[in-house]
Amino acid sequence: MIEEKKDKPLYKDYKVILLIAALLISVFAIVSPVGYFAEEDSLLNVHYGLDIRGGSTIYLKLNGAVAQVDAQPRDIVSTMGNAEFPSGIEIVSSMVYDNGSAFVTFRTADPVNQTRLEYLFGTNDVHVRRTGNVSEVNISATKVGFITSYLTQAYGKEIVPHFVRHGIEYEIRTATTEEELSRHMRAVNGSISRDASGTPLYRDGTTAQTMQTTIDVLNSKLGNGLGVKDLPIRAIGNEFIMIDFAGVSLSEARGLVETPGRFEIRIQTSGTETVHVLYGDSIESVGVVSQDQSTWSYGVPFTLNEEGARSLQQMAISTGATMNPNAHNLLMLLDDVVVYAAPLSPSAASQLNSMPIYSWQAGTSSREEARELQIHLRSGALPVNVEIVSAGQVDANLGQGFLRGAIITGIFAMFAVALLIYNRYRQPKIVIPMVATSFSEVIILVGFSVLIMQDLDLAAIAGIIAVIGTGIDHLIIITEETIHEGKTPSDKVYLARMGKAFMIILGAAATTIIAMAPLVFLGFAALKGFAITTIVGVFIGVLIARPAYSSILRYILIQSGMKDDKLTE
Amino acid sequence: MRIELYNYIHPFFQKTENKKLIAIPLTILAIALIIIASMTIYTGSPVPLGMDFVGGTQFTVTSSLSEKQFQDMFSDFPLNDIRMSGSRTILQFSQMNSDELTALERLIWDNQAFTDIDQKQVSPIYSQQLQKTALYALILSFIGMAIVIFILFRQVVSSAAVITSAASDILIAVAFMNIFRIELTLGTVAALLMLIALSVDSNILLTNRVFKRSGNLDDKLSGAMRTGLLMSTTTIAAFTVMFVVSTFLHYIVPGVPPIPLLSQISLIVLIGLLMDIINTWFLNAGVLRMYLTRSKSRSKKGGRRA
């Protein structure tokens, strides 16, 4: 009995304090009307998933590929030139320097349009010398530039080179296959590069950067359409995007995704009067934001197709913008809202007098503005082709029914478990703390999901029920080690036994976490909530709830005089 | 005497000799493997694949129409399968072009005869991707579990017994999916993963008690069995409730629709956990009992190795 005074009161036990603190924080998170996690139109701050709130989900596939390829500029110019000039070309000389720059010179009997060639090969360095009826053309660019131009021409879509550690990756922003790319490369005596083990350096999907741009564009476009900010748009791996539309029907959601925003360029005639120049479909590609080294201003390069370039030239001349650029601003509109306005540059204005310009640059004063403009320019077109590969819709009524079912499941599951425990121990002073601990695990888990803004969807609710199941398992292990034939052993034996109990619990918890981890990392969007809930639940159980339970149970048993110091193993 | 599973299983465990005891789960496992192998040969897939993994469009509606009426109504569309459960009907269509799909959607969403509509659509490209991901997830998850078990026990026989027992739980659950035509969906993949985690719980308890405690082997086995069976029954109870509520409650309470995701998860976990009782207490415990008594008798003979 002298030992009694050694026992700390329960409220001083840090394990119990931790549990109570976690419970208080969770309850606060669930009911608090203020905080970043607060739900405005609901009493509780629980963020339900789409299958409970009702709404639509769309999965998009980004069509594209990333590959490393090789080909000689000479062969590229020969192939492209012969396609461009009806009477063919003859290569005079070519060179690739160590620093990557390259030139090719060829002769042709056909008339040569210098701007057209500059556009085709993506370079300003095209020189044409005409002697008699033969033109000698010199094209200077980089080897990467030649390959990019060739692939752009072959696919009719934007190709973006990226410098990576072991070479240059070309991102093909449209649907393709390894065979198709290989065929294109063979046409210019080139090939897809291989790594040391002979595997072709080709993968489907896009670069992380393009994925992000696509998400930004979708966000601005869909957000505009629905009047919401920050739609839940998530990347799944490097090929898929998932979008949740709460409270929107699938047909409406599909319409929003499939109909691009309407992008338009107009020219100011006089005062507030403007005339139409072109729509977004005339914009062939939008480049990455760049900074001018001399003026330090930012800009977004974009290219126009034949029709767009001619239309712009024609309208600039007829409105007088080529003569007096500053009186005739060029306006860019997205869904009839002006997003950019600037005059033609003097050099562009004078060049337009004689020929159309394909490559443009829209200057802005800051990088942010440029980023935004880039997204607007792209609202006519996403950076890559996308297609809807999966979609789903849940009726809001049905979702409410699901929620009711899930809550009933939780209550009855808890009740069934309590009955079984009672059947084994026949003592409310064991059953009540056990069920209460299990219940507080659920509360803390829900509170945590509120704090990390994790959606509670049906799969996550299944995860909660799984956590109740394994949680009770572990509480049983603790109870069995604490009580032996209705008695609890001395402190020394008790501590040794708790050590063993927690060995078992930690082992079981580790397997659960490892088993669920692939779901979190493999891009399994529909089951991510389930995996996260289960993993977090296991952590909460092992770190907070179960240690506290062992203290509480031991305290109750000692208080009711069930301690037996003679008990050993 | 209290009604506990322990009172039924323990006497059987005591009186049955090890080889017979181990033979029971191994026979079930063998039958399961035969089922899975023949399914793979006949259908090309070890489990019936659900819509998530083959693609198509699925509607779930509440209505009072009969199966015949449904068939007439959608005769113009590639209707694959109709499944009815109470007033809920699941309609599965194969891949359609977007015009057909729009027409079908209009027909269903605008029809007053249908309420509580749930629509899901998966393209073959995405479903193939999902198949791959699901397979990776299951394999990675199992390997991860096996590694944890090895680290935990650092002993070949006991680790192998636990891993075999867990693998057997999952394979038998997969065989049951074939027998009951439970399709592999995202929900059942989740259930199989959960099973990987749950199936080792009582095995870890058993191995720990047997190796890390002193005392008589029979006492340790009985003690572990009593605790382990209580653990299994509580988990089974929780998932039984989930199964009953998500599958049958809608017959009694109209406000609660059937919840296919929870129904699938709970059914698979239930089958796996029931098998886990046999695999843990017959296979794993049998192997441990055999191993420990054998090594003891060997050391009595003189311990050739030592």
Protein model, in words:
The complex is a heterodimer of chains A (569) and B (306). With 569 residues, chain A is an alpha+beta fold. In chain A, 47% of the residues lie in helices and 22% in strands. Chain A is built from 16 helices and 22 strands. The longest helix of chain A has 35 residues, at 525-559. Chain B is α+β, with helices and mostly antiparallel strands and 306 residues long. The relative contact order of chain B is 0.14. Chain B is elongated, with a radius of gyration of 24 Å. In chain B, β2 (79-85) and β3 form a beta hairpin. Residues 300-306 of chain B have low confidence and may be disordered. At the A-B interface, β22, α12, α14, α15 and α16 of A face α5, β4, α6, α8 and α9 of B.
Brief synopsis:
The complex is a heterodimer of chains A (569) and B (306). Chain A has helices at residues 14-31, 50-53, 73-84, 114-121, 143-155, 178-186, 208-226, 250-258, 306-319, 346-352, 367-378, 396-425, 428-451, 458-482, 491-521, 525-559; strands spanning 55-63, 65-67, 69-70, 89-96, 101-108, 126-131, 134-142, 159-164, 167-172, 191-192, 202-204, 233-236, 240-246, 263-270, 273-279, 283-286, 290-291, 298-304, 330-334, 337-342, 359-364, 385-394. By secondary structure, chain A is α+β, with helices and mostly antiparallel strands.
